[in-house]
Amino acid sequence: MVTDIDTIIDSVSGYWSAVDRDTLMDAYQFAAQAHQGQQRLTGEPYITHPLQVANILVMLQADPTAVAAALLHDTLEDTDTNLEEITQRFGPEIGRLVQGVTKLRKLDFSTRQQQQARNLRKMFLAMADDIRVILIKLADRLHNMRTLSPLPPEKQQATATETLHIFAPLAHRLGIWRLKWELEDRALKYLEPDTYWQIVESLGQTREQREAQLEAARHRLEEALHHDGVSAQVEGRAKHIYSIYEKMRHQHIDFSQIADLMALRVITETVSDCYAALGLVHSLWMPVPGMFTDYIAKPKSNRYQSLHTKVIGPHKQPLEVQIRTEQMHRRAQYGVAAHWRYKGDADPELDQQVSWLRQLVELETDLQESHEFLELLQLDLFQDQVFVFTPDGDVIDLPRGAGPRSMAR
Q1: What does the pLDDT look like over 327-348, one tens digit per residue?
Q2: What average pLDDT does the chain have?
Q3: Burial, 121: exposed, middle or buried (Cβ in 10 Å; 0-12, 13-18, 19+)?
Q4: 183, 146 in Cβ contact below 8 A?
Q5: Of 69, 83, 196, 251, which has the maximum CB count within 10 A?
Q6: pLDDT tens for residues 150-189?
Q7: Could you give the CA distance from residue 218 to residue 215 in angstroms, rounded to a whole number?
Q8: Cα(258)–Cα(262) distance, rounded to whole angstroms?
Q9: Spatial CB neighbours of 37, under 8 Å, sequence gap ≥ 6
């Protein structure tokens, strides 16, 4: 169902009290007029795309400026509108965001050679200038993945590959779980359709029994927390399809051998409550040795924080449990969007999370060769790939685990 502009404006007003409703409505009306007569391949009016991109940003609780730019993000590329017109009507900040997204749209990541490195460099430098540019781009890519079916098979494959190799890891690096998992699942649907639908079917066949067991575990833990005076919300956590696929691939097992499909998430009010909840979990069910990780004391590189443990739950089935505060949960779901508020206040946590982008800006003059820049980005973005650089500066893409081998002459 297509989201309408009134719903979007009401939603923004719910989390951003100082929203200028007139600006958002004006941005929508301007975009609707500019795209009048255009259709997407789905047969829908083109304006449905900017509306859905804006709606994804609302899900991330992005600021009204970013939402307005999302409504306008295709006007420079696909209509007769020029940047001066947008800047005069909506101001320089929205104009810069729309221009930034337009520039990213022209970048081609389909090659694994030096051109990809140059395009990645441009994208990261644009992000360092204003992270909202990539938030809009990620939302744009997610809606395109949701509506990919009318495209020819070769275009579907190319877009899905690009999504899996570039945009899903980028969402992970920025800590935006809500986008990461859906980008991965939708890419897998086009890259490995047989495997994707097999997993979907298998999940459906086991869902009723699994949900009954999960509800029993959730209720038992919730009662124990209440009895001990720990204020917390307990909910079932669905494993997404790509994570199941990855486990099957890396462990060389089939779906029937995956034992940890059940998972609970505990959301508490304080950090001390997290550890109290952990003690209760381990008192209710036997912990699995070596399967506890404290990401609160030692956060991940993308600032993710949570306690992770695995126990032998009801009916002797493995049960994963994640425990975190509400603030940690928001950060896990929305990443940088959870605290990027553009109110002029310093945000040391955000500075730390995107400091790597600012380092790229500082290194811009030192990284004249594209292969140097791609080498720098190996740290997190391409976890499943190995890039080998030849003396001539060519880039060879190999799977993770590959390495050099001496050849006897």
Answers
A1: 899 888 777 665 544 444 445 5
A2: 81
A3: buried
A4: no
A5: 69
A6: 999 999 999 999 898 888 888 887 778 889 999 999 999 9
A7: 5
A8: 10
A9: none
Tens-place pLDDT, residues 342-372? 444 445 555 555 555 555 444 444 444 444 4
- All residues at 6 or more sequence positions from 345 whose CB lies less than 8 Å from its CB, including other chains: none
The model's pTM: 0.77
Task: Decide if 363 is inside a domain.
Answer: no
User: For the chain, how many structural domains are there in total?
Assistant: 2
How confident is the model at residue 174, as a pLDDT? 79
| Separation of alpha carbons 277 and 2, rounded Å | 41
Q: Which two tokens stand for residue 353?
A: 């999370």
- Is 78 designated active site? yes
List alpha helices for 228-309, DSSP H: 241-251, 271-284
pLDDT above 70 for 107: no
Close Cβ partners of 251 (under 8 Å, ≥ 6 residues apart)? 257
Asked if 385 and 391 touch (Cβ cutoff 8 Å), the reply is: no
Q: Is residue 379 part of a domain?
A: no
Catalytic residue among 10, 77, 351, 394: 77
SS3 call for 320: strand
Exactly one of 20, 26, 78, 380 is catalytic; which is it?
Answer: 78
Alpha helices, DSSP H, located in 147-192:
153-162, 168-173, 177-191
Structural domain containing residue 47: 5-174
Among 335, 368, 396, the domain boundary falls at 335
Domain finish residue from 287, 310, 335:
335
Beta-bridge partner residues of 233: 267
Cα dihedral 350, 353, 356, 362 in deg (nearest 10)? 20
Judgement on whether residues 167 and 217 belong to the same structural domain of the protein: no
Specify the 3-state DSSP secondary structure of 240. coil
Token pair listed for 285: 């069910």
The contacts of residue 88 (CB under 8 Å, 6+ apart) are none
